[in-house]
Each structure stands twice: as structure tokens, then as C-alpha cells.
Design goal:
alpha+beta, 6-stranded antiparallel beta sheet, two-stranded antiparallel sheet, 1 helix, globular
């Protein structure tokens, strides 16, 4: 198994991405990795109360941003294509809590010349789905 850190510069672009850019002091600064054996993109993260929506809960929009970023990286790292989100649906199964560890995983599940379809999931430390 090879798990490789994904960097924006490796793909020929600079960004100030809210989710992944380590130099964005206002962002989440989540590092993403490509697991080429499992053919997915993963990231482990813990978000502080600075990203809460309600006391002790990560804002749903921030959770969605993490999922969206993971799926975007899946398009780049797995399908070797740049893509933007045209439609998204998210099911929040359980709250994502501030100051707790989570993992996001994303993969490409279908694609043709015009469109890629991706899926993503946020898991807690027990592997339970929090959002997908």
C-alpha cells in the first residue's frame, strides 16, 4: 500500500483553499492523502470551536466543505481530472463534534468524459458514519 500526501503544487496550481492549504491561517489546513491501494483520498482532522455552528458541534457547512474537498481531491488524484461540484447531497447521520478526531474518505464511483461522480464519508474514531 502506498499512501502519498497530496500537495496543490504537485498538480501545478497554487491556491488559498479554505480546507486544505497549510498557509491559510483562517482555514482548516487539513492535509489530504491518496491511498492508491484502496483507490481513495483520506484525511484525518479535528476541528476546534472556531468552526462550530452550535455549542460543541462543528457547523454543518464546514463538515460539507471537508467532504467537498475530499471528493475534489479524489477527482484530481484518482481520475487525474480537475472538477468542480455541480450538485451535492449530504446526509448528516450523527453530529460532528468540536475537538474530536475524524477521518474523511472519498472516491470516484463513476465517470465519463463529461462528468465524474464521487462519494465521501466522515467517520468517527470508531468507524461510525457521521456524514456522507
Amino acid at each position: 500500500m502506498t499512501v502519498t500526501r497530496i500537495h496543490n503544487e504537485d498538480w501545478g496550481f497554487e491556491t488559498n483553499c479554505f480546507v486544505c492549504e497549510p498557509r491559510n491561517d483562517q482555514g482548516l489546513r487539513i492535509p489530504f492523502f491518496h491511498d492508491d491501494e484502496r483507490d481513495l483520498v483520506v484525511a484525518d482532522f479535528t476541528l476546534s470551536a472556531a468552526f462550530s455552528g452550535a455549542p460543541t458541534l462543528v457547523h454543518g457547512g464546514v463538515t460539507l466543505a471537508v467532504l467537498d474537498e475530499a471528493m475534489a481531491w479524489a477527482c484530481i488524484a484518482i481520475a487525474h481530472r480537475w472538477a468542480v461540484t455541480t450538485e451535492t447531497t449530504t446526509r448528516f447521520a450523527k453530529p460532528v463534534l468540536v475537538d474530536k478526531p475524524y477521518r474523511v474518505e472519498a472516491r470516484v464511483i463513476a465517470g465519463d468524459d463529461a462528468m465524474l461522480t464521487t462519494s465521501g464519508v466522515v467517520l468517527d474514531h470508531k468507524g461510525q458514519v457521521r456524514a456522507e
